[in-house]
Amino acid sequence: MQHCSMSLCSTGNRVMVIDDDPQVLRLLGAIIENEGANVELETDPRLALEHLRGRPFDALFTDLQMSGCSGLEVIREARRIQPGISTVIVTAYGTVDSTVNAFHLGAVDYITKPFRADQVAGALGRAATNNVKSRNRAMETKAAIAAAPATEASVVACSPAMQRVLEFAKRSAASFSPMLVTGETGAGKETVIRYIHSISSNSTGPLVKVNCEAVSEGQLAEVLFGKESATGEIQRGAMERAAGGMLFLHRVANIPKWMQAELATAFLEQRFLRVGGVAPVALEARIVASTSENIEPLVRAGGFVDDLHNFLSQAPLEVPPLRRRREDIRPLLASLMKEANRTSQSYDRRRKIEFTEEAMAKLERYEWPGNVYELENFVRRAIVFTSESQLSAARVAELLPPTRPPANTEMISVPYIGDLKIMERALVSEVINRSHGNKSAAARTLGLHRKSLYRIMEQDDENAEK
Known about the structure:
The protein is of the alpha/beta class. It folds into 4 domains: 3-140, 3-Layer(aba) Sandwich (Rossmann fold); 145-320, 3-Layer(aba) Sandwich (Rossmann fold); 325-399, Helicase, Ruva Protein, domain 3 (Orthogonal Bundle); 420-465, Orthogonal Bundle (Arc Repressor Mutant, subunit A), CATH 1.10.10. It is built from 19 helices and 18 strands. The strands form 5 sheets. Strands 1-3-2-4-5-6 form a 6-stranded mixed beta sheet, sandwiched between helices. Strands 7-9-12-15-8-16 form a 6-stranded mixed beta sheet. The protein has a two-stranded antiparallel ribbon with strand order 10-11. Helix 3 (71-81) links the parallel strand 4 and strand 5. Helix 13 (329-343) crosses helix 15 (371-385) and helix 17 packs across helix 19 (450-465). The longest helix is centred in the first third of the chain and has 24 residues, at 117-140. The protein is globular and about 80 Å long.
């Protein structure tokens, strides 16, 4: 096994090259380096995939016939890790079937051994062209990034808990401080954030949302920072597009750690560099992030950058789950029914669904583990699967899930970040915190022997020292 890294022109594309023949690997790397790219060479496909998981690459050149791992497997896994990466296959004569399969997996070009420098340069150029096109498509994908108009949002707040949320929201609207909005999935975090933006002094500016979970690691830097080519062509990222308004980082706990550090630097310095750029761009947007995960144990376990957490937590706000604001269920239900009546195509709009008092009481007692999302789904089921104008408690029971978690069930949510050791430490740290520092009680809760819990904690301390 041999691994080497060449540090090349900082404005070039980053290219991973994989071949189990060191001589071919060095030759291919030298040609690509001569074209101005940043090159990483790897003879071990599995190590190469680990590098792909760690940071973004623009292109991948891989041999098809390697010992221990097929080039087809590499391409398949690489495109799963970084869907936007451009892959080029390096193949010998007589491997037509494998070449065709590689194209089916998304390869953009191929070169045959022995290759010439101009063939490699041509493949690199075509990979770069494909890369720009895929990035443009990613920037235009609504699921990944969405710019929303700053309109007045409707927030149901009949409960004391939500009234307190709105009071805080109104105070924070007059500020430019970063915000971290937390709460369970479906609780209404985004609705509150849009409300804050709509009544803020920068409401005439854009609200640019980035779904951090939906963007692949390979595209995340360009989606956030934008990109600048060597010829001066500029693709504005979310941070630049949000100037004069608000940048909304949805599901911020899912951002990989390498990007967390980049964001912390940009936020603290109030400027950033486009990918491939050399001139700093001023950050002129308010930063708001949301998460349904508990970030505190991740920070303690080293899975979330402390500087970024401290920056975002300047104005923390928790949106309570629906079970803690049952006074909102009745008005929310009326609002959702009205909206369904307005937009549904299959629903008889002359039909008005009402609920008996017993039915409403049942709805108000229900735990709603999915919060407002689950209430919306209930409304859809009521519209589709019933014909009555008034629904009884028994009818409501048929529309609700047959089982629900006990009211006293305590959930601990740890986001999947790819490192099981960090996730393990985050879970243990949170249980110890909830046990008020009593490690024996925490061990009993987790079903661990105390020695096992101490072992995990010692690993945590060793990592902290490093």
